[in-house]
Design a protein that fits this description.
The structure is a homodimer.
Chain A: E1 2-7, H1 12-23, E2 28-34, H2 42-48, E3 53-56, H3 59-68, E4 73-76, H4 78-87, E5 92-95, H5 103-111, E6 115-118, H6 121-138, E7 142-144, H7 147-156, E8 164-171, H8 189-192, H9 202-210, H10 212-225, E9 232-236, E10 242-248, E11 253-257, H11 263-271, E12 295-296, H12 303-314, H13 318-334, H14 340-353, H15 362-380
Parallel strand pairs in A: 1-2, 1-5, 2-3, 3-4, 5-6, 6-7, 8-9
Antiparallel strand pairs in A: 8-10, 9-12, 10-11
Helix pairs in contact in A: 1-11, 4-5, 5-6, 6-10, 6-13, 9-13, 10-12, 13-14, 13-15, 14-15
Chain lengths: ~375, ~375
């Protein structure tokens, strides 16, 4: 029985993680969870799971729950999420938080030698070096939940890292894949949120349309698989069936294919190194899928993907700055304050404006994150609608 | 340095095996080889390789070579191929013989605890049970050279056999994949030999057109991977890029892709568990390939594939009989003695005519092979042009 602590259970990945856990009661037990604003899932979990530790956002909610469920330990407040990670007895931490907040709890779990299933991109994009160093020191496995990284991880099983020639992350191309940059001038938030293959949160859907998300994934892959950026490629694959592939030096390519259902990579992260039965809804019949196509990416069309390669190579303060600027820009776009293309301008200008600092400590990252947000907000003023 | 003995070096697979060995002089050394009628490669090997043992078909050739190369041990005669396998010092036996002759030498090598790289289908189709029992007893690895089985073997690396839901062997569909059975009535030998993707020998090209070859591969897969026939599927994949795939119980499919170059699977069998660099001619760029399609197989259109499933399930004398009947029928077709569709009729009728015998010894197989040939030749008389 694998005991699991899920950070961010109320989000899309968190809820699907709970579905996977519930489908395998012999294998998994949910012992702890952190909730965001949405407490919808809480009554079901209190009834069906055997939670020992729960983190909620609001202090009032925490106090109310504490009185009602005296056997469960409740936490609230950002710093106390680390306490939950330190106090709970579990085997695997699932980090499904949607932003930077997940970094410190993840590092705390690694220091406790707990394996980490990671859906939180920011953790690796911004602090990959620190997370990987900690994992290596504590001999902890970092298991990717992203469909692309799960695919690469699966295609690497049973092979030697030094035999890898390249890995290729596939991308559907996002909601605007067939629009030229000229056609992107006046696109609306509503149009941007119509992703062709996946139903995801707003932030990540916009990040897919700009391919900032794919850029984050390139940086994640660099850390997860210990590969230089020149060995990490991106290809447009509209059907979202081949989730990524590895090409070895003997010119064999190993690819992972599955339906576009996040429960597939979530389950692999939870069950690894085993594979467990999955419900039939996620079955893939290749004789019934459309033809599988792959296209090269135009980096001029998707400048944030090109930026991510440069930022990932240079490291230092740049990943934190890029991530912060992107968060600001996307939130402005979603609030209809700026046009779509201004996201790219703001992120690129912010990275160009802030002085490059090659050496950063873990604490510096928080500073650069703040600085990135401040400068991005400043630059955004030029683009206000 | 891996020392390699190649049975059947003068055939297509044998010659390509030599190319792979020569490309990796730090890794592989060819120490012995058997030649068929074609001795074209012999001078090159005598010059470039450091052969210690050589088998040739003709006794006269053997005696002539023995005088000329006193340091090399020469053999001739079918029984003496076993002697070569017993006398030579090597780490890996490559069985690239094109028919039934390869069985006894392979079994002799297994008894010496030598790993086997197997390109010879008949060995497993007809005597899979005996070969597998010997491999298990002697803890010998059986490494497939067929592109499909190499693909499956690669997709199984790092995974547990009990997690496999199904394996799917891909097939280009052969030279007549778009012809109906009615249209096959008058096809010529020349038309049949035009395979859409691979340049192969005559026998195997005809076996591809009837899908008897795919049927053999289904039976091979049954033995190689220890899977029941209901877990072994076939799909038409015209582009011959996805060489086969494995679907796991978590609904993840792992596929192997490569250019249609036999040196790729040959090299994997030689280098396993490592992967070595391959020359750039075999590089695959998925952004430049046609869309990848998969189609279900119509078993009424390809009755020999359906027959192979039944024969593989029933075992006993049937695999030997089916293989023998097919050899006779294909040789008659290639000699323009019978029409194309008669191949299927002869093989099916031979299997129906000969009484089913569930228990067979290794020696019985040779008897049933002879009986299959005799009955097939008898049945073929009905179909003579």
């Amino acid at each position: 029985m694998k005991k699991i602590l899920v950070l961010g259970i109320s989000g899309s990945i968190g809820r699907q993680t709970w579905q996977v856990i519930r489908q395998h009661p012999e294998e998994f037990q949910l012992v702890g969870a952190s909730f965001g604003d949405n407490l919808e899932l809480l009554p079901e979990l209190l009834k069906e799971a055997h939670l020992t530790h729960i983190w909620v956002k609001s202090n009032d909610t925490r106090l109310a729950l504490k009185v009602q469920y005296p056997k469960i330990r409740f936490y609230s407040g950002e710093e106390y999420m680390i306490d939950m990670v330190l106090d709970t007895e579990y085997d695997l931490l699932v980090n499904a938080l949607v932003n930077f907040i997940g970094l410190k709890p993840t590092l705390a779990a690694i220091e406790r030698k707990k394996n980490i299933a990671l859906a939180n991109k920011e953790t690796l994009v911004v602090a990959g070096q620190f997370v990987l160093e900690a994992c290596q020191r504590q001999q902890v496995s970092l298991l990717p939940i992203d469909s692309e990284h799960s695919a690469i991880f699966q295609c690497l099983q049973g092979n030697q890292r030094q035999d890898v020639k390249s890995i290729t992350l596939t991308t559907s191309g996002g909601s605007f894949r067939d629009k030229s940059r000229a056609e992107l001038k006046d696109v609306t938030v509503k149009e941007a949120l119509q992703h062709p293959n996946w139903s995801m949160g707003c932030k990540i859907t916009i990040d897919s349309a700009t391919m900032m998300n794919k850029g984050f994934e390139v940086i994640e892959a660099h850390w997860l698989f210990g590969l230089p950026f020149k060995q990490i490629k991106v290809a447009i694959h509209r059907q979202a069936i081949v989730h990524s592939f590895v090409t070895y030096q003997d010119n064999c390519t190993i690819a992972q294919l599955a339906t576009a259902d996040m429960r597939v990579p979530i389950q692999f992260a939870l069950s690894w190194p085993k594979r467990l039965e999955a419900p039939s809804h996620s079955e893939l019949d290749l004789t019934k899928t459309p033809p599988l196509t792959f296209e090269a990416v135009d980096y001029d069309r998707f400048p944030l993907l090109a930026l991510a390669y440069r930022v990932g190579e240079k490291k230092g303060n740049l990943p934190a700055v890029m991530n912060a600027a992107n968060e600001v820009a996307v939130s402005y776009f979603l609030a209809e304050k700026i046009p779509f293309l201004a996201i790219e301008d703001i992120v690129i200008k912010t990275c160009d404006t802030i002085a490059y600092s090659p050496e950063v400590s873990l604490q510096d990252i928080y500073t650069w994150d703040g600085e990135g947000r401040r400068v991005a907000a400043e630059i955004a003023k030029e683009f206000l609608l």
